Amino acid sequence: MKINGEYYRTIWVKKGDDRVVQAIDQRRLPHRVVIEDLRSAADVAASIREMHVRGAGLIGAAAGYGMYLAALQAPRESEEAFMKVLAADGNSLIATRPTAVNLEWAVQRALREIGCADGIDAKIAAARRTADAIADEDADSCRRIGESGVKLIEEIAARKGGEPVNILTHCNAGWLAFVDYGTATAPVYEAQRRGIRVHVYVDETRPRCQGAQLTAFELGQSNVPHTIIADNAGGHLMQHGMVDMVIVGSDRTTCTGDVANKIGTYLKAVAAHENHVPFYVALPSSTIDWSLRDGVREIPIETRDENEIKYITGINAQGNIETVLITPEGSPAANYGFDVTPARYVTALITERGVCAATEEGIRGLFPHGGAHG
Ligand code: MRU
Known about the structure:
Elements: E1 2-3, E2 6-7, E3 11-13, E4 21-24, E5 35-38, H1 41-49, H2 56-73, H3 79-94, H4 102-116, H5 120-159, E6 165-169, H6 186-193, E7 198-203, H7 210-221, E8 226-229, H8 234-239, E9 245-248, E10 252-254, E11 259-262, H9 265-274, E12 279-282, E13 288-289, H10 295-298, E14 303-304, H11 307-310, E15 311-315, E16 321-325, E17 335-336, E18 338-341, E19 348-351, E20 354-356, H12 360-366
Parallel strand pairs: 6-7, 6-9, 7-8, 9-12, 10-13, 12-19
Antiparallel strand pairs: 1-2, 3-4, 4-5, 10-11, 11-18, 14-17, 15-16, 19-20
Helix pairs in contact: 1-2, 1-3, 2-3, 2-4, 2-5, 3-4, 4-5, 5-6
The structure holds 5-S-methyl-1-O-phosphono-5-thio-D-ribulose.
């Protein structure tokens, strides 16, 4: 996608220096576009943990490149020593965030491919190949999700006789959360490309404001009409017929269709159900965890630092980025990162292979042999 007319992915190997990986530091958006150099697996782990890079697809891709940087720096005296260091670096990457399944999957895939290559140089080449493949596949899946999901928007547009289709989304499941295109936003971008009129209600998504800061930024960069709303406004809009459909992303989906996504998603799904608004989840199969059946009980939910709730960051009148305390200093806060929406509230899943029911039968119908990591 483009920023100020220039094409970007969210992560890439630096031109002219293939020992450095570069990524957009998303903590600075929407006010500054800062590109960060990552030189080691530890750099990548820190950037995932501190959310310079975030979003299920992107942290999977970052983990792939983290393993490539790990391979560049691992000891060369024996394959055994080399693989031992890689396994340790892989564990550090996996430990950074627990909910999105892509992270562990990307590390395991890299270890498998690297392990199969003969000799250190071949192992490093395999690490690079795997990282690039994970990133390319992520971008390609998201592009296909756009093609699958646009049909749902087209149907509503036809019913509305060309009036704008109002779509509500939560958090950022846009291109910034993946390598390119995004999931929830991919059908929106495709609709706009096809000349269908759309308007997006963007949940601000406290505490880290991924909606207000990131989704609004990317929609603005692509000239998609949008309105930021307070997290609590969605139910009201739905009651008043102002939302035609909800599309959100997923950080982990069980094989039965339960969806873990940014905290607050569940409440939107319940409100959508109550108001007969279709609630879609757009996801690449890389976010399906085929080993889990009961999302509410089995998906690990990340809890983060309470200061993410107590403080807020923005730009001040002088144009400087500033962080301020918005709560009583002594009040404790609890910061749950994700929640799980049971499959019964999900109208359908939008995947790279098409749209299916949020049921085991529906999912396995599209992915009989498992998805990216079935
Ligand atoms: O905590 P984040 O920003 O990494 O959360 C991930 C998300 O962006 C959302 O939950 C998103 O809607 C899912 S799509 C990766």
